[in-house]
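Design job #97: recover the sequence.
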């Protein structure tokens, strides 16, 4: 199946083709070649979708559609007598200047006097042509009306042609609107639609309304004639396919397309015509909020793909076609649009329960403009994207989503939550103790469960693309799912794969999104932790999340404090089961004095000593503590300068060879040390002056220093690769009185922030920075 062949570029404008050339669109290619056996509903007579583009004009000129303008007007009556013939001669003609407006029904003047006292209806114009006889007035358009002729004279030939094509377009659109508003025979209507499409394709006018006006006429026709046969539907869709190549379908037409996807998902029209339309929507749509029916149509199209014999394999190929064959998707709007479609589809599956929970208008009511409380309709059954068949087979038992109650966890969270009755409750608290969710079991019909499963699998597919994963993690960081979906075991199982992909990604912008978007709110880290609603693996995913977070810039006291306050129990349980990451966490809590309660410290020590890996790491911790105390006892030099070109390994070897408990001044200028040496620097408790001039010491090292070297007074970062992300961490080092940030990536805002938060800072060098 080749979805890429349906992607909506275009193949050039009509003016690039010769009269005898015809362009066969991509939709005529077999997009479902290897899966054509799944289209059992396609009639033999419905051939492949083909179209042809014709040249718009012989000279290839393009014009903007006129809506109003200044022009000279002259009316010439048909001569009936010798006197009237004399009065209408070219020497006695009277020209009037008018500002004309081309409305939907006629030609009117801003000053309705003289020749243009009344509006000239398009229906009264019998013929429209450019003046071509000898000695005719220059740059004139001739309008033949009953009893005479109207001449419109422009300033030049281009304006004359622009008026001519605009009037011609308005006149023809007026005619098609009247004809298609009162259809009699559908075979004639279909011919008129094809003629309308050809007119739009061959027009030399360039304007959005040139293609949108025919689409609106056809959508109105379809809305007023809902009893058409399926074959008539397909014929009309095939006829208007060329107009959809570079245009979004209007809302009413989207409703018609949705209906076709629901009723005939295996139709070739769905694949050959709708595929490039949906591809264009996903690539170019900027806001589904302005046109929610575009999102609904995309949603129904994906569900129609899922109904084919290949099922989710067809959907997977479609997603791959949207991403492209390279490692980087060239269309930045595809991922946000796909995520928006998935979220709306998942939300719709629980719409009834969400509405009964918060008494808010439903999606359908919002689309229909119901905003006031008294406009609400009585509660309806669960609205699904696709209704059940009229004669369904024997119903399968509904899927029960049981919400697990954990009173101990809920009570603990209530005690540890923010004080005050106005604070916003956490998501996990709502899931555990909400009366609306605990008193009822949510029953999803089989159809809703299929919809939920389809779009959950799409999120799973999106997470497999490396270039999409950072943006996907950011979009999902606020947990934009209804609480009922997070309590659905099947959905959270598919979602768990996505979170696992985030936890395995080494990029900080990806795995940092596992944490909550702001303090006081729960994130995926809390949701999948032991005791969380979505945790079903005894904390394996939680351990992998902690591991990746500890491996990046989150190896700080702040992160360890949050674990000690909220997740100490799960950490100790996993450490007891031999999880190495959790053993390391407990050791760091002891080393950094995170735990103040002596009983808790003894419990952590007992937990570490209960496993082989924990016992070994605890012994290493005790050795480090003894070495540190010995280092502080012996003293050592107060000043130290490393030779140039020294590395992190050289520094570690030097500091481990002697006692440096009294070291106050350390110069690493012009060495090759990096942020990795920060692990050694934080073991120097007396360090007050640190020179890192022209080294590769970066942001990660600065963050670690700011956590442990509170007594540092002088810091030289000249010509280092530090940025605002690391420099902002220095705001916690209140003892700093001298700071050199010469030739760094410091910005003016960060500099002002540091000056405000470091009251003792007196000597600052910001030359050759943005703040200079």
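Job complete. Output follows.
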């Amino acid at each position: 199946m080749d979805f890429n062949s349906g992607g909506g570029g275009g193949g050039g404008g009509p003016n690039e083709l010769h009269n005898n050339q015809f362009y066969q669109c991509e939709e005529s290619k077999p997009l479902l070649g290897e899966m054509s056996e799944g289209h059992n509903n396609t009639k033999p007579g419905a051939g492949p979708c083909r179209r042809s583009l014709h040249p718009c004009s012989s000279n290839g000129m393009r014009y903007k559609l006129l809506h109003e303008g200044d022009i000279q007007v002259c009316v010439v009556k048909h001569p009936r007598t010798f006197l009237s013939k004399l009065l209408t001669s070219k020497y006695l003609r009277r020209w009037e200047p008018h500002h004309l407006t081309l409305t939907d029904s006629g030609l009117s003047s801003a000053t309705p006097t003289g020749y243009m006292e009344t509006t000239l209806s398009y229906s009264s114009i019998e013929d429209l042509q450019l003046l071509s006889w000898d000695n005719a007035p220059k740059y004139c358009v001739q309008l033949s009306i009953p009893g005479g002729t109207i001449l419109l004279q422009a300033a030049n030939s281009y304006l004359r042609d622009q008026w001519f094509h605009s009037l011609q377009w308005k006149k023809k659109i007026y005619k098609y609107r009247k004809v298609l508003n009162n259809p009699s025979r559908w075979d004639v209507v279909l011919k008129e639609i094809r003629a309308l499409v050809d007119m739009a394709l061959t027009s030399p006018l360039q304007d959005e309304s040139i293609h949108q006006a025919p689409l609106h006429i056809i959508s109105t026709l379809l809305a007023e004639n809902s009893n058409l046969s399926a074959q008539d539907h397909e014929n009309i869709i095939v006829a208007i396919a060329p107009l959809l190549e570079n245009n979004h379908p209007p809302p009413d037409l989207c409703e018609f397309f949705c209906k076709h996807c629901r009723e005939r998902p295996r139709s070739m029209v769905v694949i050959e015509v709708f595929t490039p339309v949906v591809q264009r929507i996903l690539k170019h749509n900027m806001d589904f909020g302005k046109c929610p029916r575009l999102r609904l149509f995309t949603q129904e199209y994906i569900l129609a793909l899922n109904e084919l014999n290949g099922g989710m394999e067809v959907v997977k190929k479609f997603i791959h076609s949207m991403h492209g064959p390279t490692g980087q998707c060239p269309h930045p709007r595809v991922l946000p649009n796909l995520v928006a479609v998935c979220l709306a589809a998942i939300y719709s599956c629980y719409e009834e329960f969400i509405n009964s929970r918060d008494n808010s208008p439903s999606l359908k009511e919002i689309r229909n403009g119901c905003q006031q409380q008294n406009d609400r309709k009585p509660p309806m059954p669960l609205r699904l994207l696709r209704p059940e068949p009229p004669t369904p087979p024997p119903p399968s038992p509904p899927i029960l989503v049981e919400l697990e109650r954990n009173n101990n966890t809920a009570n603990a969270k209530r005690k540890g939550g923010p004080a005050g009755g106005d604070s916003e409750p956490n998501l996990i608290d709502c899931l555990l103790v909400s009366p609306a969710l605990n008193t009822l079991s949510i029953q999803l019909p089989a159809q809703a469960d299929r919809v939920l499963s389809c779009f959950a699998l799409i999120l799973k597919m999106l997470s497999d693309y490396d270039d999409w994963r950072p943006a996907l993690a950011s979009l999902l960081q606020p947990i934009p799912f209804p609480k009922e979906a997070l309590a659905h075991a099947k959905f959270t199982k598919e979602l768990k794969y996505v979170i696992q992909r985030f936890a395995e990604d080494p990029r900080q912008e990806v795995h940092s999104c596992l944490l909550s978007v702001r303090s006081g709110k729960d994130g995926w880290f809390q949701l999948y932790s032991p005791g969380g609603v979505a945790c079903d693996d005894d904390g394996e995913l939680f351990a992998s999340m902690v591991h990746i977070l500890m491996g990046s810039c989150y190896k700080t006291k702040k992160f360890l404090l949050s674990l000690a306050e909220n997740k100490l129990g799960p950490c100790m349980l996993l450490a007891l089961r031999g999880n190495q990451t959790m053993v390391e966490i407990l050791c760091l809590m002891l080393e950094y004095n995170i735990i103040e309660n002596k009983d808790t410290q003894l419990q952590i020590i007992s937990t570490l000593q209960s496993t082989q890996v924990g016992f070994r790491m605890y012994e290493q911790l005790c050795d480090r503590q003894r070495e540190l105390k010995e280092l502080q006892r012996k003293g050592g030099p107060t000043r130290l300068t490393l030779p140039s070109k020294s590395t992190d390994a050289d520094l570690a070897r030097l500091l481990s060879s002697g006692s440096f408990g009294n070291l106050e001044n350390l110069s690493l200028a012009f060495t090759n040390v990096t942020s990795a040496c920060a692990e050694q620097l934080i073991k120097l408790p007396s360090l007050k002056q640190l020179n890192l001039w022209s080294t590769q010491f970066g942001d990660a090292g600065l963050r670690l220093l700011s956590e442990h070297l509170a007594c540092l007074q002088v810091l030289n970062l000249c010509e280092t690769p530090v940025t605002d992300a690391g420099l902002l961490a220095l705001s916690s080092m209140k003892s700093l009185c001298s700071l050199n940030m010469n030739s760094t990536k410091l910005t003016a805002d960060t500099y002002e922030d540091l000056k405000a938060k470091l009251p003792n800072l007196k000597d600052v060098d910001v030359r050759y920075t943005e703040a200079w």
